[in-house]
From TrEMBL:
Pfam families: GAF_3, HATPase_c, His_kinase. Residues 709-820 form the Histidine kinase/HSP90-like ATPase domain. Keywords: Membrane, Transmembrane, Transmembrane helix. One of its GO terms (cellular component) is membrane. It comes from the Bacteria. Residues 465-610 form the GAF domain. SMART domains: GAF, HATPase_c. This is PDZ domain-containing protein. One of its GO terms (molecular function) is phosphorelay sensor kinase activity. It comes from Rhodothermus marinus. InterPro entries: Bact_2-comp_sensor_kinase, GAF, GAF-like_dom_sf, HATPase_C_sf, HATPase_dom, PDZ_sf, Sig_transdc_His_kin_internal.
Amino acid sequence: MRLPRRLRIAGLLSLVALLTLWPVGRIAYDGWRLVRLVGALPEAPPRGFDWVVWQEREGRIVAAYVFPQSPAARAGIKAGDVFYLLDFQQFFNVEDLKRAIDGLAPGSVHTYALFRDGNYLELRVRFTRYPTFLYPLSASLWQFSLWGFVVGAVVHVLALILVFPLARRGLRARWSLLLILVSALWIGSNLLRLLIIQFFGPPLPGGMTDRAFQLLTFTGLVGWIGFPVLLLRYMLQELHLIYTPWHWSVYFPPLVLGLAVVAATFRPIPLPVTLEAFVAPILFYACCYISLTAGLILWIPRRRSGDSRRWNRTGSLLTFGFAVLLGLSVLDVVPLLGLVSDSAVGWLIVSAQLLSVAPVGLVSLATLKLGKVDLVLERTLSYSTVLGLIFLAFVGGMSLIEPVLARTTTPWQVVGGVYVVLLLIFFERMARWLQRELPAVFSTERQRTRQMLSRFQEQLRHIFSYEALAQQTVEVVGEAFRVRSARLFFRPAETERWISSAYHPEPPYLTEQVLEALWPFIYQEGRIWARNPELNESRLPEAQAQLLESRGITLLIPILGDGQPLGVLALGAKRDRRDFFNLEDLDLLRALSSQLALAIERLHLVERERMLIRQSAEAQLVALRAQINPHFLFNTLNTIAALITERPDEAEAVVEHLAAIFRHTLHTSARPFVTLEEELTLVRHYLSIEQIRFGRKLRVHIEVEPGLGAASIPAFAVQTLAENAVQHGLGKLRKGGTLHIQARRLPDGLLEVLVADSGIGIPALWEQNGQVQGRLPFFGIGLRNVAERLEQLYGRSDLLRFESAPGQGTRVWLYVPISTAP
């Protein structure tokens, strides 16, 4: 019967964990045998080191390499010197000499007897501690180690910069950050030790530098022990195997090794071994865990539909093969390390140390791409270029200036200071130029996306309808981010309907019904929801998140207006399955969402303003009617009272005209516009009453061009002009006068209504030459109402014009655009 896969994986984890303890078990077994033999647990002294690589050549022991900054080099030992005696004791092979050197205490001084070019030399060398996990075996290996760890440190710094913003959003990114931090602890500690030795030489025992060097060794080993188990744990979580039975067994070997390193470094208890004895167990443990991680990637590949974050199987296969081969070599199963020289072994182990960069890349590559990669690389290249050029210019310039200054009495401090100031000015301008030019070098799809969104945001102010705004937005977003589908929903107010638009919709669709079910949670959160945990800012309940995933939504961006969501922009996966959203995309979409919210609110204000204009015009019309009706009623009743006894026929005519006016008012009470014929009918009834009042002193002439009776004009506009002409122009003349009303069509499509009277005129206009337009100081309620309604309805202030002169009366022109009149 075949066991379930989870149990098989659990057994594999336990087996590998047990196997990694084999070298530590051998050390413990040897210690136990030593206790049985000696009767006590002796303490092994620290291993000494002279920083010289001794090799056998033609039967002689020769110094093949002497580290430049070492005590041996300072004492005078050079490459090619022939070994004769150590503390006046002769050794005949390299292995015996190495064991003797290892047994000498760090800090002690010993005498070397050497031959150089046939001359006998005696040189005294102070020994140092052995540099654990550092291999000064040749100049090329040392430079490879130094630059390899520099490159590794730069990679880790860039990875931390990219992952840190994501770690606040998702658990997976936090594990990536922890993994890179632990790996950086190992890489950074080793790099610092290399730099200390490179620039200051090996630290002598007992000083502050030596204690700092030991602490860096300890922290580096802690990072090297912690990195493989965190890498394995991360992969178990990625493959959803974190709750596999007995998975906790993988933590036991690093715990044992960590305690052993603490004991060997700080020596709380005596041990028969030194810290160097744990190099092989730590290396074997790291090889086992890294090979297990790569093996799991190869064994259980991720095949999520639409998930572009697939591990590189080729890289995993190479990592697996290298780690297995090196681990077997540590156990001497494959005698690889025994078949090559010490220098080759050093190359191999240093390469294994730098191997941690590969898993960091394999594990974190997908996570890193979620960050602002282009921006970080652009700034890194810019700063590195400027700093490198500054260094070269300073060193080269001072090298050229120094011989010149040697022949003069000019202080070099002054010249150097002036030169530095000039360099700073020049490179400050160069840095500005690089900041402008480098984005063109890094111009990618994201640069194209930024340009498209920038152009669209400039066009937002020219969109004047909700439907056009929704449609253009989803089209631009779909093309800019190359998504498979997009859907936009918004509503300017809670009481209004949803405005929506789609870009290449794919089933199952995100409908209004689904959005209504999600809207209370989206409204409460008001933050971006992403299917990818590293980008997710929202805390939608699991059921709602699954509902979004079932509809193919990858990203959900709320449109926030004045702190409250107005709608959402839902995006599907990108067309290229290898591409996905990152932090730069989120910043761009967040900025677009803000601009979109402003555009929606602007359109909402425009709609409200239009509605208020209509309501204001209607309210003013109602107010005008309310003002006119009592005025008519008061004057007409007085006329009827005066005529009813003497001229009952005329009183009856006044009553009929008054009834016609009331009937017209009732019929047009809800209409802001009436036809010209209806308006002139009202005017005729009104003027008939006034002619009965004034008698022959009021003469009226009305002329209308044929075909204009059906033209629409604002209600009570002509009636108000006629009433003002009678009341304020003709009514104040004892002899009376003439009122002339003329309507005609102008060539430019305007309807012109002229109301002219022969009254006393308007003194405020007597000094004006020609026609005067706009709102004028002498306007009363009626004229102000007409002028404001014309401006609100047609957006023009030149549709009401006045002209008056002494003794010539007043002429008023009313213009109405026939083509735009409702």
